[in-house]
Amino acid sequence: MELKEALSTVYPIMLSKPGRSLNDAETVLFKGSWQDLIYDDMVKDTPLA
After folding, report:
1. Fewer CB atoms inside 10 Å of the end CB: C or N, the chain?
2. What is the pLDDT, as a whole number, of residue 20?
3. What is the pLDDT of residue 17?
4. Are 39 and 32 a contacting pair, CB within 8 Å?
């Protein structure tokens, strides 16, 4: 499964929860995890660094 497909699966599930979606930090971490990055590489050039 590709990252784009995974996100298109996760977003609707999260949105089905009242008042819930993936915030920016969760999106960065999801994408980085999907790409097997370590935390420092995930947050490079983001406000999370």
Report:
1. N
2. 87
3. 86
4. yes
pLDDT in tens, 1-24: 899 999 999 989 988 989 888 899
Q: Can you give the pTM of this predicted structure?
A: 0.77
Residue 20 CA to chain centroid, in angstroms?
14
Please, is 18 exposed, middle or buried when counting C-beta atoms within 10 Å of its C-beta (0-12, 13-18, 19+)? exposed
At residue 16, φ and ψ (nearest 5 deg) are: -75, -15
**pLDDT at 15 (0 to 100):** 87
Tokens of 23: 């915030």
CA 11 to each of CA 7, 36, 38, 45, 49: distance values in angstroms, whole numbers, following the listed order: 6, 20, 23, 23, 24
Closest CA to 48 of 36, 31, 34, 35: 31
